[in-house]
Amino acid sequence: MASYLSTDKKKITATRFMAMKGEGDKIAMLTAYDFTMARLLDEAGVDAILIGDSASNVMIGNATTLPITLDQMIYHARCVANGAKHAFIVADMPFGTVHGDPQVALAAAVRMMKESGVDAVKVEGGHQVADSLKMILDAGIPVVAHLGLTPQSVNKLGGYSVQAKEEAEAEQLLSDARLVEELGCCGLVLEKIPSALAKQVTESISIPTIGIGAGNETDGQVLVCTDMLGMTMGFKPKFLRHFANVGVQIQEAVATYCREVKAQTFPNDSESY
Ligand code: KIV
After folding, report:
1. What H or E segment, with its residue span, contains residue 220?
2. How far is the CA of 135 from the centre of ligand 1 (A)?
3. Which one of 43, 124, 181, 191 is the catalytic residue?
4. What are the tens digits of pLDDT across the range 223-260?
5. How far, in Å, CA of 7 to CA of 30, rounded?
């Protein structure tokens, strides 16, 4: 019987990622930011790994995603690409890299692809970044778009509340979803929007939708790995399920280690040379 550690699984390319929607094969995506976590997720069978700019929060400790730099994102993306051999790997383009001159956006995306080895980039926004999306896509770089709550716009949005509850906003989101599909994006993250709207978007476009706080009728789901593992203790928005309590386990293990070092019961004879 093949174990989950075997390498006979085929790499998930952008083409395969897109085909999963037509096959009704729901996409399980998680974030990762380092080699060890990427390898664990990959070997456990996740379909896609996102190097989210949430690295700014959960790796660096910033209050928002805005401060993380392109160099820092490339570093994390390189670590993940070294650890994941099967999953489709997507890296976030950080704040400020894609909202101006499309040539600058292209240069940033090219750097990300060349220096990290990921399979695709993710870009927050729709019509506002259409020229940049076109230029990046024309260069042969697969792009996953991101609509709804776009955390890079937190200062404009005034917080992290549910988006597109009003009809006009919902219509704009639907139109942006159609636009990113038309431009050639290979997927669309929908963050913190009403489930009914996420369902409507999912049924209206041919590219896979990946939800976070968008109900269960999208083509896949994404969560921040440290959140779903229960490592970011104290952070528990409604959409988040803790699939483990790794934070508590780490603290218990560390407390035991401290006690054993102080009591000189670690290392014991069998752990010594
Ligand atoms: O940065 C991130 O982790 C993300 C996901 C939450 C979708 O964009």
Report:
1. strand 220-223
2. 23
3. 191
4. 999 999 999 988 999 999 999 999 999 999 999 999 99
5. 20
